[in-house]
Amino acid sequence: VKEAGKKVSFFIDLNQKETSLVIDAPQGSALFFENKLLARLHSNKVFEARIDSLKGIYQLDSAFITVYNSRSLQGLKTILRLSDGSEETERVRKREASADQDFFVFGFVLVLMIAAIVRLNASPQVIYLLSFRQIFLSQVVDNPFYSSDFFSVESVRIYSMLALALSLTGLYFAESMDYNFLLPDGNSFISHLIYWFIYALVIYVLFYLKLLLYKFISGIYNFRRYTMIQNYDFMRISMIVSGVYFLILFADLFLLNINLILLVLIPSIALIIYLFITFKKLNKTYSHTKLHLFSYLCVSEMVPCIFLTGILGN
Prior knowledge:
- This protein has helices spanning 51-58, 99-121, 124-129, 153-177, 189-221, 227-255, 261-285, 290-313, and strands spanning 7-13, 19-24, 29-33, 36-41, 47-50, 62-68, 77-82.
- It is of the alpha+beta class.
- The strands form 2 sheets. A 4-stranded antiparallel β-sheet has the order 1-6-3-4, with no helix packed on it. Strands 5-2-7 form a 3-stranded antiparallel β-sheet.
C-alpha cells in the first residue's frame, strides 16, 4: 500500500486449505480479527498465520481483518500464499479469559460500589450542585459551597471516584488505541491494579492543576467570582463523560465490540457543549466584550485540551 491512512480493513475466506495469511506492516501496527486484538507487530516483524488454523479456532467461514497503525500504514503488504510447513508460521491461539479481563470486571464492580457509597454519603447540597440540570442553567447562582476546598472530604470523594473511573476505562482501551505510555503486564492482576491506582493519582493531580489554572487565568481576566463555578461545571461534564465511558466499557467487556471512534467523539461533543454553556454563563455574568470572553475560554479550556491531546497523540 503506497498511499494508506491509519487503518485498512478487509474480509478473508477461511475455507481455503493449505493457505497462510501474511501481513507485513510498519512497526507499531496492530492486527485485529473480528474487531478483537489478535497481534501487535513490533520491529517490522512479518505476521503469518495458517487460514485453516484460524478457522479451527474461531469456527467461522469468513473473517473481518483490520490492520491499524497510529501514524501510517504506508508500505503495508497483505498476501495469501500456499503454506510451506515452515515452523516460523505464527501460532495463533484464541485468547482465553485472563488476568486482565478478571481485573477489568473487578475494577468495574469496585467503581460502581464506590460511586454508590459516594452518592449515599453526599449531602443534599452537593447532590443539588452536581446535578446535570445545573450545567444548562444560564443563570449563575452564588452558593457558599462553590468556595469549598478542593481537598474537602466530599470533594476528595468525588474527584477520587472520577479519577478511578477514567483511569480504568483508559487502561482498558489504551492498547487498542495505541497510546504511548506504560501499560501493565497482561497476565498480572497485581500489575493492572498498581497501574490503575498510579494513573488514577495522575488524573487526580490533573484535576487539581486544572483548578489552579482556573484560578490563575481568572485572576488575569478578572473573573475570580466565576472560578469555582466553572470548576464545578467541568466536574459535571467529567462525570457525564466518565459515565458514558463506563457504559462503553460494559458493552465492550460483556456484550459486543465497540467502535473506538466513540472514545474520541464523546468527549469532543461534551467539550463543545461545555464551552457553549460556559460562554453563555460568562456573557450573562459579566459585561465584557464577546472577544474577551472567547479569549478567556481559549486560554482556560481549549489550549490545555489541545496540549493534553497532543501529548497523548504523540
